[in-house]
From TrEMBL:
<dbReference type="InterPro" id="IPR017853">
    <property type="entry name" value="GH"/>
</dbReference>
<dbReference type="Pfam" id="PF22848">
    <property type="entry name" value="ASD1_dom"/>
</dbReference>
<dbReference type="GO" id="GO:0046556">
    <property type="term" value="F:alpha-L-arabinofuranosidase activity"/>
</dbReference>
<dbReference type="InterPro" id="IPR051563">
    <property type="entry name" value="Glycosyl_Hydrolase_51"/>
</dbReference>
<feature type="signal peptide">
    <location>
        <begin position="1"/>
        <end position="29"/>
    </location>
</feature>
<dbReference type="InterPro" id="IPR003305">
    <property type="entry name" value="CenC_carb-bd"/>
</dbReference>
<keyword id="KW-0378">Hydrolase</keyword>
<comment type="similarity">
    <text>Belongs to the glycosyl hydrolase 51 family.</text>
</comment>
<dbReference type="Pfam" id="PF06964">
    <property type="entry name" value="Alpha-L-AF_C"/>
</dbReference>
<dbReference type="Pfam" id="PF02018">
    <property type="entry name" value="CBM_4_9"/>
</dbReference>
<feature type="domain" description="Alpha-L-arabinofuranosidase C-terminal">
    <location>
        <begin position="486"/>
        <end position="669"/>
    </location>
</feature>
<dbReference type="InterPro" id="IPR010720">
    <property type="entry name" value="Alpha-L-AF_C"/>
</dbReference>
<dbReference type="InterPro" id="IPR008979">
    <property type="entry name" value="Galactose-bd-like_sf"/>
</dbReference>
<keyword id="KW-0325">Glycoprotein</keyword>
<dbReference type="InterPro" id="IPR013780">
    <property type="entry name" value="Glyco_hydro_b"/>
</dbReference>
<keyword id="KW-0732">Signal</keyword>
<dbReference type="InterPro" id="IPR055235">
    <property type="entry name" value="ASD1_cat"/>
</dbReference>
Amino acid sequence: MLNIPAHSAQAIAKSLLALGLLSSATAQAQTAAPTTVTVQVNKPGKPVPKNMYGLFFEDINFAADGGLYPELVKNKSFETTEHLVGWKALKGGAGLETYAVLNQQPISATNSHFVRLTTRTASPDAGLTNEGFRGMGLKQGAEYTFSLYARRGPGSVNALTVTLEDEKGNPLAQAQISGLTTEWKKYAVPLRPSATSSRGHLKITLDGAGTADLDVVSLFPKDTWQNRPNGLRTDLVQLLKDMKPGFLRFPGGCIVEGRTLAERYQWKETIGDVASRVPLINRWNMEFKHRSTPDYYQSFGLGFFEYFQLAEDIGAEPLPILNVGMACQFNSAELAPMSSTAGGPNATANADDPTLETFIQDALDLIEFANGPATSTWGAKRVAMGHPAPFNLKLIGIGNEQWGPQYLERYEPFAKAVKAKYPAIQIVSSAGPSPDGELFDKASKRLAELKAEYVDEHYYAKPDWFRQHVDRYDKYARTGPKIFAGEYAAQSVAIGSPDNKNTWDCAISEAAFMTGLERNADVVGMASYAPMFAHVDAWQWTPNMIWFDNLRSYGTPNYYVQKLFSLNKGTTMLPVENKNGQDNLFTSAVADDQAGEIVVKLVNYSSSPRPVKISLTGAKKVGKAGKAIVLSSSDLQAVNTLDQPTNVSPKEEKFSAGATTTYTLAPNSFTVLRIPGKR
């Protein structure tokens, strides 16, 4: 007889009970009459927008610096307001006589600060360390390019020693930079760590006694997307490309607006020489007291050129969002005057401040930068950055999440000016931050009167809101503006709560809602989850679609929901005869004319298996070999993590198909059925 410990016996008993319950539930599902889902293949609707499911990017949660943009040195040019953010003197400065940020005879007018180090005697402690972005992710054997600008002053400092160390101070790689002169000069050396560290750091020390000036200190991985010198982090781009997104919205988000107009995102400041791009405080740095990040700046190493390039790389339409002359209304609500003679209670008073014309001209110049020939002013700048061909920009957004009469009065002349010069450009307008209410209704009504092409609607809410509003767009006029569901995500606790999680409950509820988007693809032209990225050690907002640390990354259950809709969006809407959401069964269907398949999406928000009978009315050449892609978990609170990145992830299986197919949906599941057949 086996000697089983008491706690093991209890565990076995629980397992047997669970198996018994599962067997009972399965038996009930097999004996219960299946729910009929009739897909009217012979009554196809309008085409599914080819760019329907896309991506929303905003530099929140260290999404750019410390994330997608893989520069490892924080504050590399000493240009932030607090000039030594990210830097510390070794042993509190014991080896240095002075270390200070100065601006005499800088590299350039736009890169006007540098750090000066002085030591009276040669010392291994005469130097600085850089902490990176919550550490530096260093991979054993990978190549990193260290570079900086340097010049020597009085004394005998003719060289620098550069060391990569792990979190305990153990050296991982070292190199010397020699031949310093009295003039600014760029130096570069390769470094290959001898071990892996997710929280490494950089150390720079003076060789000799005297003075040296340092600037534009960079540590950049050689392994970047498409091996570009100023490229992006490969694993994060791959996660995006795998989704086959229809569009890429950038740079935000409230980043576009800034807390004040002075802190707004200005695209012209983000192009050209990377070393000359002037950093700006990130508007999310102190937005949430519970997650304050005072060291959060935007270096703009990832700027508008790189955004356009990324969109091209992943096959997405670029969708830049531009400031409409309004700072964030949750912050200062500062307004630019309508013209140089305009005013108002919140208008900027200083005559040197920009007027609405400035913002309109920025938009026109951006379109020229993206699409203009090499002979045009801004097109020439794109060509000079290495992209002779146009980016083929077709969409822009005017304002991010503005509301009220101040937005509408600025939107109208803005849109008119863009259409006058570029009539083919389609414009995305804003309905504000809420999906309902008086301001939302007034904005929607006025934008319809102005014949807006896209109206951007946002909704962050509890999971049950998404299941309860699956019919939201059933009620919309078929002839009005197209809807851009530009920001949405289920909040497991509350909007903006630090305790929100990317649970399966949130993701499956979003899947249910998205069947409503797909059923109304003649109204909803684009949709994107938000936010997209978050650093596990440096986030301000949760939930987020993709999480990462300095070395690893993973997609959440929400990511896989978005990916399954995008990869299976089909080409043509197909009506489905059943009340969407009845008994917590949510459905939609499309024809994929290119693949010759009927695609049926089903969400079973139930703890029991659910048999369904799929009837393909009027389908032709229906095959027998169907494919099911199932995303499910018995635990609605299940999440993915860095250590369990695919805990909730899709599984594929084959099933017997036909014009009438019976299939049993797993409990708490989102299932995509692909059945060979034509309309």
